[in-house]
Amino acid sequence: MSSNYRSFRKSVPWLILFLETVFIILFYFLFSGYNASISNISYTDFQDVNNMVIFGFGFFLAFLKRYSFSSTGFNLLIIVLGVQCSILMEGLLVLLLREAKEGDLKIITTAVVSMTAVVISSGAVLGKTNPIQLIVMTVVEVIVFQASRWINKRFLQVPDNISMMHVHLFGAYFGLAVSSRFSEPSPRSEKNASTPKSYLLSMLGTLFLWVFWPSFNSVLADADKTKAIYNTYFALAVSAVTAFTLSVLTTMDGKFRMTHVHSAALAGGVTVCYAAESIDYPWIAMILGLLASLITILGSFCLQRCLNPALKIHDASGVHFTFGLPGLLGAVAQVVLLVIKKWTVLPSLGYVVMIYIGAFCLTISVALITGFITGLILNFKLLKIIPVSKYFEDHFYWEVSFRVKLTMWEYI
Amino acid sequence: MSSNYRSFRKSVPWLILFLETVFIILFYFLFSGYNASISNISYTDFQDVNNMVIFGFGFFLAFLKRYSFSSTGFNLLIIVLGVQCSILMEGLLVLLLREAKEGDLKIITTAVVSMTAVVISSGAVLGKTNPIQLIVMTVVEVIVFQASRWINKRFLQVPDNISMMHVHLFGAYFGLAVSSRFSEPSPRSEKNASTPKSYLLSMLGTLFLWVFWPSFNSVLADADKTKAIYNTYFALAVSAVTAFTLSVLTTMDGKFRMTHVHSAALAGGVTVCYAAESIDYPWIAMILGLLASLITILGSFCLQRCLNPALKIHDASGVHFTFGLPGLLGAVAQVVLLVIKKWTVLPSLGYVVMIYIGAFCLTISVALITGFITGLILNFKLLKIIPVSKYFEDHFYWEVSFRVKLTMWEYI
Amino acid sequence: MSSNYRSFRKSVPWLILFLETVFIILFYFLFSGYNASISNISYTDFQDVNNMVIFGFGFFLAFLKRYSFSSTGFNLLIIVLGVQCSILMEGLLVLLLREAKEGDLKIITTAVVSMTAVVISSGAVLGKTNPIQLIVMTVVEVIVFQASRWINKRFLQVPDNISMMHVHLFGAYFGLAVSSRFSEPSPRSEKNASTPKSYLLSMLGTLFLWVFWPSFNSVLADADKTKAIYNTYFALAVSAVTAFTLSVLTTMDGKFRMTHVHSAALAGGVTVCYAAESIDYPWIAMILGLLASLITILGSFCLQRCLNPALKIHDASGVHFTFGLPGLLGAVAQVVLLVIKKWTVLPSLGYVVMIYIGAFCLTISVALITGFITGLILNFKLLKIIPVSKYFEDHFYWEVSFRVKLTMWEYI
């Protein structure tokens, strides 16, 4: 198997180079110059999101003791490929469907934001995919997510910034469906363990994500960016507090668990993303943050014990309860808030509610189905799945000098 | 004791949840919607300060080898609680005293800036407090600091942005007074030691703080933000240079000491905070930076040998010489600069000088007295002080798998 | 030798203090107040560049297992000294040559950007210079680089922002010339090895640099900042992809090498810096990014095997292929793009081309000659070169407690 993989490995770079060449040629045909039309996105907004995705998620996922090179490195690789792919999809839509062309900064920012889906999915199969599988997954997911957004926009009239916020839901369920096709690691294996140092690296990424999440939720907001920022901040604050609280309640001897803090502190930001612009009072955002944190920690408790073993899903970094469940909660909350707010005003309320529910059900269904198919494709002989014994190992992909490895990896 | 603490631990989450519920209810009554009035604070300014407090201070305090989880984690916890508390205080002031309501971004930014006091105080008792004690300290300190600022503003007519800059002084002396009520760790204990890796984490936080300090000093500036930025940058630059110089002079065999660089490189920013807006020439800021660094390193030399043992204070992360003394120097420097500048112009100079001196004396006195009382409260049986033998131990609060702990903590 | 060094060390701080005092006095005479003239540089732009230089480069260079204190610490020291020196040079030019005075933010930003040259040069001699040598090198390099820019501007009429982008070329070749005067470390020595943890720290710095590079290339741009941002982003994206690809192709058994990713992912940003403002199509930037990555990885392959041993140069952190060769490619690319674009328009094309080629040839020549001379000066008995056996050792300069050192440095 390993020699198979090695011979296969020789074809890896040519595949990536081929893909990159195709991208450059498509850019040549699709982008006939820059379009500096004014948008309400500033370079600083873009930079915050870029920072989150490259730096924040790179280190957020670096919690496996032997997989930190791959976590941060492959994260960079799939994002830069995915962003190009996403921009090209946008260009194709403009060309084929004669949609209005947006400003360049909006296109790039949208591409970077939509990469969150890919990063979340890659978290679900963290340590189990080789780079080629990751790249194939990235390209497929970017295309499907763009298509799903386009359907949302065209047929369900969902506004652009709301359809974009399905990114967490899509990423989580696509990733889960993909991961269902990968075998579980041996339960006695300690390779996918974490050390205090790797948790600390992950904390570094988490704090980065936490600080920049208000930018993420407001970057594509149309009307009221500042409201989106405040609501996100309050939701994040309360969910961080709740994360600590519930962690003590759910662990054996009343200690804090680092993974709880990592995932639940961010849950508020995920939940509030749909309604961030429309919530008028901080206390609503705060309650959403509290519920988000609650659902995340209860989810981590229940899913890991009941659902995942039953469905034979191994969710390597807990994306289901970190992004999936809070996203679901947020989508439901948005509908509830809409109903409460417009109870008397809107005669066609039922229709609007159906549209919103339809939008996120559609997104999840598309994610699950295409994710499952992608999982099947990734396990084709051609893409040479790596043996389970080589899961979660940096040195299978990276040059790590053996002497160092022994001392370093064993003792830390 | 340990079993006591465990039974106590079960009540911890309910206390936090209760507090959070009270906060949400108060938010419901006090904030009837967002107030998007224009202020001269941009989201980027807020983001810089937020980044400093959450990320910068979190890692700045992560220099203890076995306490990095708690340093970064509890830092997040107390800040998110404190920010909510501080915003509520502001709302109460508006409600009860009919003060003018400020823009939301200004309120949140002010809350985040004032959390620096709590973070500095938590540095003074780093490793010696349990989460409940930290939370009680946070709530008390936020309330007292707001009250002290309000007195400054109302009775001494100190401008808002100057009274805010007392945050370093208040934090340091409050923390010192609190820490005087905690027993010292055994001098032979090596638990509160640092390793090169933990110093490096702390360096990461320090560099973050260093880079964003000009934002901190200028964020609440009224008139001349750019001048505040330049002066802070120059003061920081010179104090970084001086930190290296004096470190060589004060250590045994002429080597650099990492803690000197950490604290003295930031001293310039602390010192110049009062006068940042009013200094007209870079060389004045530079001299202040030099003096700040000097006072920090001499302070670290003298305090640790003479004053602290005499007063039986164990200042766990040296907040006295990192924030206290440079803050004092800055307050004095502001007065001196004012006297020089307005020597001929102002007839009532003496009165103004008295006001400024009164303001920081009052701040320090309030900090010392309330800090001392808080220290007493924190040592009530109810708040169950942890045994000295468990100081500086992450695994007392966090799930750290024992096997990993043994290899990890022992060898690093 | 060691005792020699120790006695010498006692004079170190006085030298730095003397330098700092001279700086403050010069600031007193040269800067008679702040000049808040409007420029197209915002504080956020400056902050991004400041962050890159202090934080990004500090950790980018922290890849040696025993030299991370010095990498991050001395980086801060030389930058703060160099920035002051660079600002003073600007002030002297205004005073002596009656040049127009620029806005303060422009002056400080220019100073921080030009420090990149010094940081790159310090990378070439990383681990081999003592602090005094570094400071002397910094002061000399800042003065020579400013002079070289002034010649470019005055006699070759090169625009300010283009002459500034010679910073990579200048830094790399100056550093290489300096490093040619330092003896090579023993090839069997393992002191200049890296560990996975130190590579990860370096990855942290690299990702920071990668994210903020578009700010770096656009900060001094005159006309079209956004175009500079897009082109840099696309070039960086493609060079990151290519870095992974070529790394697999050039290593023995088809694995990724971390150093390849570190240097080649940034190469696109270096290459595109000259033409960032004038490239009209993303695909051109992308091709430049691809070529930059190619030249970096091939360069790292060829230089380390052929050229460096032949010339007896030990390029400690590969600045030749990380910054030198991509910079060269960028300078050539700029000329080629100019020729293609203005083929028919400009009658005096030949003259313009000669000017551009002249500018970068002059820069490289000045860098090589002055670097060589600086290397000679640094090896004077007076500046007491450290013994080769003490290269790459933090504990030669920093207090690292021996007990910790043994366990820490040996096992990690």
TrEMBL record, chains A, B, C:
Molecular function as annotated in GO: ammonium channel activity
Pfam families referenced in this protein's UniProt entry, alphabetically: Ammonium_transp
GO biological processes: ammonium homeostasis
Any GO CC annotation of this UniProt entry: plasma membrane
Stretches that traverse the bilayer: 12-31, 51-67, 74-95, 107-127, 163-179, 199-216, 228-249, 283-307, 319-340, 352-380
Superkingdom, taxonomy of origin: Eukaryota
UniProtKB keywords: Membrane, Transmembrane, Transmembrane helix
Similarity-based family: Belongs to the ammonium transporter (TC 2.A.49) family. Rh subfamily.
Main location: membrane
Subcellular location: Membrane
Domain called Ammonium transporter AmtB-like: residue spans: 28-389
Matches recorded under InterPro entries: Ammonium/urea_transptr, NH4_transpt_AmtB-like_dom, RhesusRHD
Mode of membrane association: Multi-pass membrane protein
Identification of the protein by name: Ammonium transporter AmtB-like domain-containing protein
Native source organism of the sequence: Anser brachyrhynchus
